[in-house]
Design brief:
alpha+beta, conserved putative lor/sdh protein from methanococcus maripaludis s2 fold, Elongation Factor Tu (Ef-tu), domain 3, seven-stranded mixed sheet, 5 helices, 38% strand, elongated
Length: 431
């Protein structure tokens, strides 16, 4: 009987404990459900969708972009130094008369005048010179014998006659040579202004030749930007004289030239490396702008004077982020962007913590200095690789949780990158 009594007591005790545990569990579960409904776990909260790009700082060229027209390196307007009738025009490589666009070499014959009159005058001058030389030789012998044979004045007159005849002969020879017009330089005929049989005056323009192996792109720069060019010009000149400077980029005032238009397939023409040649010291009185000449190589002959082109003049090189222009937000006079930080949050099941999960948090970074450059915003920095939000950033708030739609991009980042909140800059571009 005593054993049975103890068994009944134990059973009642176990039953009572079970009832108490059940009631307590229901109460805790209800409280947890109410708390969860009021304040769901961070991992379960809705998140803004964003896309990020990993942006690495790199040595970046800051450029000044200006457009202008190509001009020939030199232009020569040529004419005969004597008057006459055009007998013939020179020949090109194909044997045809020279015309606009033909290439000529230094010393090549461009045209000839009818030289018969000038040849006759040369013959006459030679005869007069020979007679004057003969007379001078005779008078010298007489003068050396004494004044009784030839006076001083007579001898001086003979010397003068010989000198005049010699000068007239030189003029006649020069005039005969000038009936042939030759190119002083290698270049291209821009204009031919004569035809065979036409009469021309002395020094009348008959050919215009341009040197276009090198061209000058002349761009007009406003006063507000000339100082940048002048500072770069001085740095380049100083570096070119300093033997300790080995970087050729520091010794050249580089520029890149782009032609307007596209090829038949809609592709832009390739850029051409160029160099700043001259910066005007005085502004154009009409436009109030400063002409800047950019030297462009045209050894292949693909460029033509008069073409419109754009020059990207390199005014500095800095370590900077090259950010897509859509990544930087300009609002209320401020410029800023959003990066992404990673942080851990607990994972809970019922009222137990069962693990950790990684969340991404938007981090606002103010931009204090920047340069607009095409579709990029250049921001100087001393930082490291930065995950920059490039889509979905317009409505973000600092500290807001986000979901990255291209997480593989973050996976490219090294473990010691600036994704950690402790290493994120509050602002950059202060340097």
């Amino acid at each position: 009987m005593r054993v049975a009594h103890y068994v009944v007591l134990i059973a009642i005790t176990v039953l009572a404990c079970g009832v108490m545990w059940y009631v307590s569990s229901r109460s805790d579960a209800q409280n947890y459900a109410e708390q969860t409904a009021a304040d769901p776990p961070v991992a379960a909260q809705p998140k803004a969708l964003v896309a990020v790009n990993l942006v690495e700082p790199q040595l970046t060229e800051l450029t000044l972009t200006q457009s202008g027209k190509l001009e020939p390196w030199e232009t020569y307007t040529l004419g005969f130094e004597v008057a006459g009738r055009v007998q013939e025009v020179g020949k090109n490589a194909a044997g045809d008369p020279l015309d606009d666009g033909d290439r000529v070499e230094a010393g090549q014959v461009l045209a000839r005048l009818d030289d018969r009159i000038y040849a006759a005058r040369k013959s006459e001058a030679i005869a007069q010179l020979e007679k004057a030389a003969s007379d001078l030789q005779r008078d010298r012998r007489l003068y050396e014998k004494g004044q009784s044979y030839l006076t001083d004045s007579e001898y001086q007159a003979s010397l003068a006659s010989h000198a005049a005849a010699k000068a007239q002969n030189e003029v006649a020879v020069k005039n005969l040579e000038d009936t042939t017009l030759k190119s002083p330089v290698a270049g291209t005929i821009n204009r031919r202004m004569i035809e065979p049989g036409e009469s021309v005056s002395a020094n009348e323009p008959v050919f215009e030749i341009v040197q276009n192996d090198r061209l000058l792109l002349v761009v007009d720069v406003p006063e507000s930007r000339v100082r940048e060019l002048e500072e770069r010009w001085r740095k380049v000149r100083a570096a070119s004289k300093d033997s300790s400077v080995t970087d050729p980029e520091e010794k050249t005032f580089r520029a890149r030239v782009r032609l307007e238009g596209q090829d038949a397939f809609g592709k832009s023409w390739p850029e051409i490396e160029a160099e700043v040649y001259r910066i005007a010291q005085v502004a154009d009185p009409r436009t109030k702008l400063f002409p800047v000449e950019v030297l462009v190589d045209n050894s292949e002959g693909l460029l033509r004077p008069g073409m419109v082109a754009t020059a990207d003049i390199v005014i500095d090189r800095v370590r900077a982020y090259q950010l897509p222009d859509v990544a930087v937000i300009f609002r209320d006079g401020d410029a800023y962007l959003f990066s992404v930080n990673a942080e851990s949050a607990p994972v809970e099941a019922m009222f137990w913590q069962v693990g950790q999960t990684e969340l991404h948090v938007a981090k606002r970074i103010d931009v204090n200095r920047w340069v607009d450059q095409g579709d990029k915003v250049i921001v100087p920095t001393d930082g490291e690789t930065l995950p920059v939000v490039v889509r979905g950033q317009q409505r973000l708030r600092d500290g807001q949780h986000v979901r990255v739609v291209n997480p593989a991009e973050l996976g490219k980042q090294h473990s010691d990158s600036t994704v950690q909140a402790s290493r994120q800059p509050e602002a950059f571009g202060d340097g």
